[in-house]
Design brief:
Elements: E1 5-8, E2 12-18, E3 21-27, E4 32-35, E5 45-50, E6 53-58, H1 59-65, E7 66-69
Antiparallel strand pairs: 1-4, 1-7, 2-3, 2-6, 4-5, 5-6
């Protein structure tokens, strides 16, 4: 999944780590996220980039609400 982009079909919860604190935020429907790493066995979360921030999202949420954005080939 690393480097793949997904457009979210519905609002999706994510966790932002900032200044030593965890904050739950909602990424709105229609937004595009980018997978920063690959999911690992036994770990239900994945690091994603959105709006210049690194967040954690549940892999299952990405699979259920995300549509892979294919890059145009030249």
């Amino acid at each position: 999944m690393r480097g793949e982009r997904f457009r979210l079909a519905g609002p999706t919860i994510a966790v932002l780590f900032s200044e030593g604190r965890k904050t739950a935020i909602i990424v709105p429907a229609g937004e595009t996220i980018k997978a920063v790493n690959d999911p690992t066995e036994g770990n239900p979360v994945l690091d994603v980039e959105w709006d210049g921030k690194i967040l954690e999202m549940f892999v299952q949420d990405i699979r259920e609400r995300g549509e892979r954005v294919r890059s145009a080939s030249f």
